[in-house]
Amino acid sequence: MLLKVNELQFAHPGQSTLTFKNFQVNSGESLLILGKSGSGKTTLLNLLAGLLKSKQGEVVLDGVNICSISEQEMDLFRGKNIGIVFQKPHLIAALNVRQNLELAHFFSKKKGQDILRLLSDLGISAKSNSSVLTLSEGEAQRVSIARALASCPKLILADEPTSSLDDENTEKVIQLLKTQATRIGAALIIVTHDQRVKNHVSNFIEVTNS
Ligand SMILES: Nc1ncnc2c1ncn2[C@@H]1O[C@H](COP(=O)(O)OP(=O)(O)OP(=O)(O)O)[C@@H](O)[C@H]1O
């Protein structure tokens, strides 16, 4: 089992405690995280990414309980094992498309995927030397997916990756996430409200804090 979540709880400062049901995900599987607004979906994703740290419960990824390692160890572990796609692409404006992906290689400290091949698979190789400021929203989101995949992570986490995309780009982005995750044997976890995404992934858990 690649990922196991056990008895996980988290409280933001001054807020009531959020509790999460136990679940497990295998390599190569896809899972949606569903739930009402404010139920704790993004919090759960941030706990899985080690961007938030819980004092209650466990998040075990590839045999490592990421709740119990230091921040420094977590940064290294995340760079090697976790790719994150945010709602907005968060690309580095001073760098071109290829350089944004090279930065992911640098942080992972391991030999990742061939960047030009990845850009070609994602249909954006013509933009390799372009400033990220010149990309459309759909293209920028595809670059952020390429960046998340560049280091061949074992786990891909995506938070509402299609919320600002039209139907055509949503279709492209979701197909890319699924096919690329399968190609590198990664588990894929997507937080979404989007019915268009739900049509493509049947496995889900529901977060129910209110
Ligand atoms: N940094 C923070 N500080 C304090 N409270 C927070 C913080 N982030 C989230 N919360 C609170 O934690 C709860 C869960 O928030 P979270 O963003 O995880 O929900 P969500 O299910 O992702 O919501 P949405 O679907 O609207 O994005 C909410 O009550 C929210 O107000």
Kindly describe this structure.
There is one protein chain. By secondary structure, the chain is an alpha/beta fold. The protein has one domain (3-206): Rossmann fold (3-Layer(aba) Sandwich). It is 35% helix and 20% strand. It has 7 helices and 10 strands. The strands form 2 sheets. Strands 1, 2, 3, 5 and 6 form a 5-stranded antiparallel β-sheet that branches. Strand 5 (56-61) and strand 6 form a beta hairpin. It is globular, with a radius of gyration of 17 Å. The model has no long low-confidence stretch (mean pLDDT 92). The structure holds adenosine-5'-triphosphate. InterPro entries: AAA+_ATPase, ABC_transporter-like_ATP-bd, ABC_transpr_LolD-like, P-loop_NTPase. Keywords: ATP-binding, Nucleotide-binding. This is Putative ABC transport system ATP-binding protein. Pfam families: ABC_tran. GO terms for molecular function: ATP binding; ATP hydrolysis activity; transmembrane transporter activity.
